[in-house]
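Reproducibility note. Readers wishing to regenerate the assembly model reported in the main text can use the exact inputs given here. Chain order matters: entities are listed in the order in which they were concatenated for prediction.
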Amino acid sequence: MQAAHRLGFVLLLTPLLLWLSLLILIPHVDMFLVSLRERVGVGEYATSLANYRSFIDEPLYLWTFARTAVMSVMATALTLLIGFPVAYYIAKMARGRVRSALFLLCLVPFWVSELVRTFGWMILLRETGLFSSLLQWAGLVDGPVEMLYNDVAIMVGLVYTSMLFMVVPLVTTLDSLDDSVIEAGYDLGGSGPSILREIVIPHAMPGIVSGSIVVFMLSLGNYLTPIMLGGKDSLWFTELIYSQFIVRFNWELGAAFGFMLLILSSVIVWGTLRLTGQTLEKTMG
Amino acid sequence: MTIPDLECTDLTKRFGDTSAVENVSFEVPPGSFFSILGPSGCGKTTIMRMIAGFLAPTSGDIRIKGRSVLDAPPNKRPVNMVFQHLALFPMMNIADNIGYGLRRQGVSKPEITRKVGEVLERIGLPDIGERKVDELSGGQKQRVAIARCMVLEPDVLLLDEPLGALDLKLREHMKIELKALQSAFDTTFVYITHDQSEALVMSDNIAVMNAGRFEQIGSARDLYYRPETPFVASFVGDSNRWRGRVVSVSGDNLRLRSESGLDLCGNSHGRPVSDGDEAEIFVRPEAIRLGRGEADIAHFDNRLSGRVTSLLFNGAASRILLRPDSGGEEIEVALPQSGEFAHLSRGDTVHVGWSSDQGNCFATETG
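Running the prediction on these inputs yields the following structure tokens for the assembly.
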């Protein structure tokens, strides 16, 4: 009996352990070791911090690194700003079928692949695209307008891609807020903005933080959207990692870049949790 | 004449084709405890939400201290509400919960601290300001929810079945406490409930509501002894009910032959009941006198003998079920706790009687 119990436990645990060790732990350890290698000759390596030094010494790398971080934070903030009213409407105002329909609408874009979705935006935004033609037809502009390949286009793409991951946790937390608590706020003399500030947002904080963390991670690690909508000069950090690994065959530097990205996201997530007074258990549990 | 704190005239609310509240009028004098009692779904919560401002009436008027509040949104009305599940703000501590309304009014910080301290003192929980909502017991939360409203000194406090979630013992205790708080704060309370004992114990006046209308407004005593409609007679307290045809009428006294063949004397208490009408008679189990022999009940004009079919022991509220020898349905009779009938058992023959005054008779609406 006791043995069978143990066997069941081991069997349940095995997939998790395999996943954690094979796909997460081992590659990261290996990548860390690679990032500490320096090529001194053909097939000769020495352990050093040279890769990290070249990351710090090269302004373009640092600039791209900082830019990616700032843009991701901005994309997260924008997604939150747009997603919150959407989630509030779905959780608190919509009823029955409308509610499920709206929820489904948030999900629909994810039925097609990210590549196709991004192409959709390209069709709309390119020089010969829908918006450009519309503007010309309306006589607002003289010639075709190129709306692709700039930071705004990247931002639009990032927000669009991440919306669902913000809306779902927000709907879940807002759903758990009893309507009568909001009514009590009004009854005691609260106005709309004060209820939002003192009651709704504090209640939704775990959802806001967990949604933000997920969206931030997705934006930071996004490769396709910045490249396709931002063009060759989009200066996204994942693009640097890609070119080091694939174009230049400089795995050592690529690995160092990868580690920098990991450290960056960990620091920002930790900082956000500290700043908002939330814990990982509260937001993810 | 003093202006009533709350006055509703011809209040009506329709949702589409169904009307939830139909022509309800009442007034609540200052400092009194008014209850609306009715089965669930009768529209009492709708009335409450209209007074609080969460629903707009289809027609009719609501006046508070003589001024119509129909145009005021909920956050501008001089009424506050204790919600069914209390709706304390879980994200704030107790002091912030109670101070919420004051902060919204722009009261200064030291003033808020003073007022919150005062009201906590009054509800007998002076040291809980720093605690979290979920650290309190059910009864304490109840008192905090009332304090949160009372600190704003509303003209009228609305209470929406606030005792529903408590267990029986605590509920009994809170009934007395609510009544004490009401007189301590000297504020008008409007209380809605489906539990008649809550309404009867606490209220100065009770409105019994059914299917969107008020059946009767009166003191607990009026509703209990002098119900004006068959619904009130059957909803407030328990009743034995006989349906039948009136065979003779003299003044308010009348005789009725029930469908099961019993001859009963009743009283119409001024209601129009005439010879040959279909009518119902309601008699309370506690109005029926139980006797061992016929001599015990000789002075009553309704006399029956029968066999005990069940003993329903429930402490002070124990009853027996009795099947009359002359036929008909079982009669519920309260069991006196004087010890006289302590050894009564199933199958015993007993005699029961009651005066015709206790038999409330209503003509049934035909058609």
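We highlight two features of this model. The CA atoms of residues 267 and 357 of chain B lie 5 Å apart. The mean pLDDT of chain B is 88.
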